[in-house]
Amino acid sequence: MNMMKTIVTDLGGVIYSFDPDFDAEKHSGKFAEVVQWYDTRVLGFTGALEAYRGGKIDRSLDIELLAVTKALQTKNSGAPDELPVYFNQQAIQVLIGNMRSMKVVAIATSRKQTSRLILEKALGPDLSGQIDIYDMSEFGSKKDPEAWEKIFKHLGGVDVIIEDGEKNLEAAYQAALWLDYIPVKSTTMISL
């Protein structure tokens, strides 16, 4: 039986954003802007923006991986094919403190490789390697409690849920309750 408590956290909007002010609408807008750039200029991504707007996100997540990789390699040069990554240093420090006594699980609607790159940049390879990562798109939507439940069943317990989207947070909380977990929930990284 797992005795270490488990904290489940989102990444985008919690420890990083594509907007320097952590504005959720600007974060999403920058994502759509970059998807459009690839859609109109890179062979193989034609139709990606329309698919993204229609809820089919596979190609947009592939674009995100490319654009984040480029931004991290160029230190956010501002090129139109990059998704600049801005870190919430306070949230990162709190996360590091939480890692001393809790297992951390990151659940993001991003490719696992994208999340790993961002975590390595934020925490370094040793600390980031201690975090389990799930790509929610492999399980469903963050707004669907059943998608969260599929992941939570693998964790053996959920003690804290951190998710910046209220609807997503409520869906995750509902899934936890279904599994008889009663977690603390927050829209921001909290110290435990």
Q: What's the average pLDDT? A: 96
Q: Rg from C-alpha positions?
A: 16 Å
Count helical runs: 8
Strand content: 5-15%
Low-confidence stretches: none
**What is the CATH homology-level superfamily of the largest domain?**
HAD superfamily/HAD-like
How would you describe the shape? globular
Integer count of domains: 2
* Beta-strand segment tally: 7
Give, in spatial order, the strands making up the sheet with the most strands.
5-4-1-6-7
Provide the CATH topology of the largest domain. Rossmann fold
The name of the CATH architecture of the largest domain is 3-Layer(aba) Sandwich
Assign the CATH class of the largest domain.
Alpha Beta
Give the distance, in angstroms, between the N- and C-terminal Cα atoms. 21 Å
Structural class: alpha/beta
Order of helices and strands: EEHHHEHEHHEHEHE
Please estimate the helix content.
Answer: 40-55%
Q: Please summarize the sheet with the most strands.
A: 5 strands, parallel
Task: Jot down its keywords.
alpha/beta; 2 domains; two-stranded antiparallel sheet; 8 helices; 46% helix; Rossmann fold
Task: Describe the model.
With 192 residues, the chain is of the alpha/beta class. The protein has two domains: 5-16 and 86-186, Rossmann fold (3-Layer(aba) Sandwich), CATH 3.40.50.1000; 19-74, no CATH class. It contains eight helices and seven strands, in the order E-E-H-H-H-E-H-E-H-H-E-H-E-H-E. It has a five-stranded parallel beta sheet with strand order 5-4-1-6-7, sandwiched between helices. The protein has a two-stranded antiparallel ribbon with strand order 2-3. Helix 1 (24-41) crosses helix 3. The model has no long low-confidence stretch (mean pLDDT 96).
